[in-house]
Amino acid sequence: MKTYSLFFIVVIALFIFAFLQAQNNDGEKLYQEALFHLEGTGDYAKAIELLNRIVKEHTDNKPLASRALLKLGISHEKLGEKEAKTAYRRIIEDYSDQREIVLEARSRLLALAERAETAATFAVKQVWSGSDVDILGRISPDGTYLSFVDWSTGDLAVRDLQRGENKRLTDKGTWFESGEFALYSFFTPDGKKIIYNWYNDNESLFDLRIIDRDGDNEQIIFWNEQIEYIQQFDISPDGKTIVAVLSSIDRTNQLALVSLEDKSVQVLKSFDWRYPNNARFSPDGNFIAYDFPPHEERPERNIYLLATDGSSEAVIIDHPSDNQLLEWAADENVLMFVSDRSGSYDAWGVQMNGKELSGDLQVIKQNIGNRVIPMGNSHEGSMYFGNIIGSIDVYVASIDIETGATLRDPEPVSRRFRGFNLASSWSPDGKSIAYRSTGRSGVRPQEHVIMIHNNETGQERELIPDLNQAFTPTWTHDGKALVFHGEDKKRRQGIFMLDLQSTVVTPLAYAEPGEYLRNPEWHPDGHSVIYIRNNNRSGIHSIMKMDLETNVQSELVTVSQQGYTNTYSLSPDGNKVAYLVHEGEAGQAVFVRSLDEKEEMKVLEIEPPASIPGGRGNLTWTSDGNHILFVKNEDDQTPPIVSLWSVRADGDGELRRFDLSMVGLGGRIRMHPDGKQLTFTSGRNEYEVWKMENFLTRYEEKDIVEN
């Protein structure tokens, strides 16, 4: 009996040994097959599949399982996957008795860590998109918050980038209650407060303010009745001083330091009508870099370095291309800027040593574009920037005035440079359309091209007036010239005329300090021009008529106290003017005034939340003078769907809604002489926030380019 039992036990033991040996052999076969795919065919996915199976099925075979884990980590490394670290850590934690395998796992973990530190991946990532995006703010030092303007009200706000939540810090009320708003903003170095400029409705001036990140303790830092506009650019590394541009009512500018401690102002440099677009403190706070156009007749900018005590100044980027300052990367003391010297707008960098360049210029990112707004750097090494996207275009449609039907669906006027065209106007004979374009290749951001589109041939003529800016072109009565409001090379705002044959620009009227002249129309008498004069300081808004033969100016309509106007339309015979008045909380109203008899009547009232959006150019008469066309936004929906309407000009109150609705419809609606065709602008600009991660690694990798 005992002999039989002993025999049975031996047989069972031999069976178990044979079974385990077979299992081990199966494991070794799988391991060899995995090695074949890892080192032979390069099929890392298949190797990972087999090695995971070994680890799962042969856990008790520690030598085999630990070797499989090591090869599993190597396979993941080949694919650049983070799971490699997981495999190596598991070897160290679960197979500590496999000494040689553990040593190699530790070595590979250390190598991965070193590579991560020295070879961080350059990447450009989107961090915020949508209809509520604004790009006039700055990233917080820790990269958590973004300051911005909530344009639904004009309030200063912050966005929590991790949670995707927005919070208003100010509470000015609706646009009907107040026309005030925040504009540019940035955080203090500790991230606890925000500096921002604010438009005051009563004084029509900007001031400078500071507020806690949670919206408490708002204070005014700077206000001066002689300074029409202040734009703050940066704060010193110690958090005590702000660098800003002060624009006085006489249109001269100063680069100045504003103290947060005692609110004193130190002027560093005075300019004429030209001014910096951007300025940044150096990482040690001893210098200020800024961009500036050195030539009156050209918009291209160089970059300068000014000592914060005003003792010295030098041009550090001197090149005939356009150079726009971005940011200063503190860790490597690299100054970054955008330049078109290579034919496209690229982001460049140069390393600085005090006030001297210690390296050569290198490209950080190609084709970053000329519509980039710098939004600061975070401590973790990312540069944030805003990008302007969206599409605005000029269209033509045909409508039936009597029925409100659309006879021909809207079609773009031009097939070229789609999304960058606006503010169109018919020629007197209806054969051509003039419009403004911002999408022409090689055109500087400050310039705008006037396009003449021939409706019969489709051919287009490009004109670049010798001005900084040119807006809303309108034809003269004979079709030989265009009139528009704009800004000349000396930053003087006014009304100008462009001769279509000689392309000579003639100023017709200049604005006085505190005034803005807008939206000219040629009077049918052939020698007068009508335009709006907005005087923000006095609060008086007028529709003016200027006789070009006598240079006599007269007020046709004056709006003050109860509201303001920024759009009007002259009747076809030139005897009446329709204009829009914004009446605050009461909403908007359209009036018709007889220029000869001085009679006036209200023909339309629009109560909130409905509105005529934007205002400028969103009224026009029909060709027979019986109706006034306008566009109306029914509510505050996003994106704004806007519809075309008409009201009788005789004041009987009859309204008609056309079956024409589009996103952003409006912005210069104009009727063809045939009474059917309509040209208008439709669309909207949108914005995105992006960040460049590890951009200085790209700086090190790029080829050196001479300054």
Explain what this protein looks like in three dimensions:
This protein is an alpha+beta fold and 707 residues long. The radius of gyration is 34 Å and the shape is globular. Helix content is 16%, strand content 45%.
Largest sheet: 6 strands, antiparallel
Radius of gyration computed on alpha carbons: 34 Å
The secondary-structure class comes to alpha+beta
Strand content: over 45%
Classify the oligomer.
Answer: single chain
Tally of contiguous helical segments: 6
What's the short version?
This protein has 6 helices and 47 strands.
Can you tag this structure with a few keywords?
707 residues; six-stranded antiparallel beta sheet; disordered N terminus; 47 strands; globular; alpha+beta
Write the SSE topology.
Elements: H1 2-41, H2 44-57, H3 62-78, H4 83-94, H5 99-118, E1 123-128, E2 145-150, E3 155-160, E4 165-168, E5 181-187, E6 193-200, E7 205-212, E8 219-222, E9 227-235, E10 241-248, E11 253-259, E12 265-271, E13 279-281, E14 287-292, E15 302-307, E16 313-317, E17 323-329, E18 334-339, E19 346-353, E20 356-357, E21 361-365, E22 372-377, E23 382-399, E24 406-412, E25 421-426, E26 432-437, E27 449-454, E28 460-463, E29 469-475, E30 481-487, E31 493-499, E32 505-510, E33 515-522, E34 528-535, E35 540-547, E36 552-560, E37 564-570, E38 576-582, E39 588-594, E40 600-606, E41 619-621, E42 627-633, E43 641-648, E44 655-663, E45 666-671, E46 677-693, H6 695-701, E47 704-705
Antiparallel strand pairs: 1-46, 2-3, 3-4, 5-6, 6-7, 7-8, 9-10, 10-11, 11-12, 13-14, 14-15, 15-16, 17-18, 18-19, 19-20, 19-21, 21-47, 22-23, 23-24, 23-46, 25-26, 26-27, 27-28, 29-30, 30-31, 31-32, 33-34, 34-35, 35-36, 37-38, 38-39, 39-40, 41-42, 42-43, 43-44, 45-46
